[in-house]
Design goal:
166 residues, alpha+beta, two-stranded antiparallel sheet, 5 helices, elongated, endonuclease
């Protein structure tokens, strides 16, 4: 176009998927950027939220009527980490089990080889092993701390031999 001498300075420099008019209409009818995104029919992911939010701001569209983000309701007590659970209650994260074991007096060393919190001059994070292989059985006597190397050699590591009877 430059070679042909065509003036294109009045063209937008960005491809516009959602017109200014459409955004103004949706912002006026919405209570949040999330609602605008929903009305546009696009995915509720961070990149879209950021892009649409910035576009609304760049166009100077009034958002003073948007309501503040609701604070999420705090979950109830998670209950004790150690103790028997039902599979329907879900998995307790290993970090939480590890903290509970340490708080109950279990030494921070591998139950198999005895290595402590440092290996080759670097910190070592011990993993929680379920002796019987049932991830929902969080009784203290069924749990032990192991270094990653020893843990990987167990019969029940990462669900290994889960279906095999004991």
């Amino acid at each position: 176009m430059l070679e042909a001498g065509i003036d294109f300075s009045h063209f937008s420099t960005h491809r516009v998927r959602h017109t200014e008019e459409r955004l103004r209409e949706l912002v006026a009818a919405s209570a949040s950027v999330r609602e605008v995104i929903s009305r546009l029919g696009i995915s509720q992911v961070g990149g879209n939220h950021t892009h649409i939010g910035r576009r609304i701001a760049a166009l100077g569209i009034d958002t003073s009527h948007f309501t503040m983000a609701r604070k999420r309701r705090a979950k109830g007590s998670l209950g004790p980490a150690l103790g028997p659970r039902a599979p329907e209650e879900g998995r307790v994260p290993g970090a939480r089990l590890r903290r509970a074991l340490l708080a109950s007096g279990v030494p921070e060393e591998c139950a198999e080889c005895g290595v402590g919190v440092e290996w080759n001059g670097k910190p070592l994070r011990h993993e929680v092993d379920h002796v019987n292989g049932n991830w929902w059985d969080n009784r203290a006597e069924n749990l032990r701390l192991m270094c990653p190397n020893c843990h990987a050699t167990t019969d029940t590591y990462r669900g290994r031999n889960r279906r095999r009877s004991a």
